[in-house]
Design brief:
12% strand, Hypothetical protein af1432, 8-stranded mixed β-sheet, Beta-Lactamase, elongated, binds fe (ii) ion
Amino acid sequence: MSTVAKPEVLVETRMVYCQNAAAAALLARLDPPLETLPLPQRLPAEEASPCVVIGENSRVFTAELRDAIEQNRARLIYILRDNAGLPAEASGAPIFSFLVPPLQVAVVASTIKAAFDNLDLLRRQASLEQDLLRARSEIDELNQIGIALSTQRNTESLLTLILQKSREITTSDAGSLYLVEETEQGDKSLRFKLTQNESLKLPFTEFTMPINASSIAGYVALTGESLHLEDVYQVPPALPFRFNPKFDHESGYRTKSMLVVPMKNPQGEIIGVVQLINCKRAWDLKVARETADAVVMPYPDTRRALVSSLASQAAVAIENARLYESIETLFEGFVKASVVAIEARDPTTSGHSFRVADLTVGLAEAVDRDDSPAFRNLNFTRTEMKEIRYASLLHDFGKVGVREEVLVKAKKLYPLQFDLLRQRFDFVRKSVQQEHTARKLTYLLEKGREEFLAAQGQLDGDLAERLREMDEFLEFVLKCNEPTVLPEGNFQRLVGLAEVRFQDWTGEPRPLLTGDEMRLLSIPKGSLDDSERKQIESHVVHSVNFLSQIPWTKDIRNIPSIVSAHHEKLNGAGYPKKLTAAEIPFQSKMMTVSDIYDALSASDRPYKKAVPTERALDILKMEANQHLIDAELFRLFTQAEIYRLTANWKHPAGFNL
Ligand SMILES: [Fe+2]
Ligand SMILES: [Fe+2]
């Protein structure tokens, strides 16, 4: 690390206070002499330097001395007189050593030395313990920051957190964060991403700058070396850059100490630079031009090491967040492509998946906000919202596994079937006409012109009657072919029609309606028979089978089970598992309301006319009353006007079928 900070020097003086004049005189005779001072009235309470006190009477046992001994600032050596014990004041006092007269200079001096050694040892131990505690708390702090960094997956929030934490652990008043950008051609530049300042609120715009030695951040990004400047206005001449004071001049701020650290990933690549400004003596202090000298200090070594460590963690966190975002983008693309695949199968339901997603997420947000007893305790995290959105987008994906002719079947007969039926009717019409012509010819030949002319009206009337009958049959079949409810009595008439026979071109008698046509035309409601309905319903199982193939991350792993229940009804009348209210996931219940509403109100289904909003809500209300869908969710869907979310719906930009 480049640095221009000065080392701090601590000077200690060692004092010996002596109550005993004989001892003081002895020590003064040492070579070199050991200076002593008489015991002061009071020991200085804030005494930083160690001292030894030589006492001989009760006056030495003061509260100050006891405190100083306990705090390892002092040691007491006591001179015991002949026949005299310790005075009462000495009770419980921590005495380092006793001397007994006659005093010998060597004994006194070595006892004093032992007392100082003891103080040094204990003070060093205390200092080591303090260092250990500080190191522990720094590791704790770094760990806490590391955890915070690793859980933040949004890059922008992460960068803010990195700068904030770097400033906090260094009590920096301000700071900026730069990221290295690389073009596809491999050209690198430095983007000024973020700035923070406790003393000033600043307007901020991003910009890019070259990575070279002409700027401080550029120099660090170029060399990969940390840089510490005690005062940016006194950059050592050996360094290739100068501080640009423009900002200080314009704002009245004073940039003084600066710590600039590269963010390197484990491969050693520099992905950004953290620039910390003005290490304050206390976090709460503000920096201005006038106060900078008093408030700002150089960055201490320990803090610099912490920032370096934090910067490495930050680099990994940024790369992880970027990776996470690219995985998310990738997955979004995959989901979008899946929706394209669903919609391509059945363009008549175009946009259904997106609208159901918008409605369900909107309903989930309303549940989040709602304070009613039903939803008071229900909240969805951002990830849970994402889970709901993906599940909604993919809920009908299984339709890709349903035969297309069934999926888009609009009438009871398939178009080809109906064409065939119509051709058969045309054939019968032609046959009737041809039969009529043959009959007329026979009549003419047998009866002669006069009789034929007389009977012609009757003959033509018979033809018209038979053709009208055929037209009526066809009209009736057309009506039955509609997916509406089959009116009372129509079934019987169909049975009657099925008994009508005609002769094919070989003269073989055949039924006017085949058994299959008869069966389909007899469908009482809708366009699907039981087996076709089952095929459509199987889309849920196909969806779940497909979604179960995806190795979902833990936080969104419920997607298959949410999707699996989107056609279940609370009373057990749904499909495919006939689940009941308690077994259906809440997210599926929300999706069901949205799904039914969109299926009713979507205007682009040729076989099902769009239902106006009021009618669609009425139908949902009926379903709620019949305990098919969740009544509380329906209440919220209406009250919060969730249905409006898709009122003017359009495909997302860039979405191409
Ligand atoms: Fe569905
Ligand atoms: Fe659906």
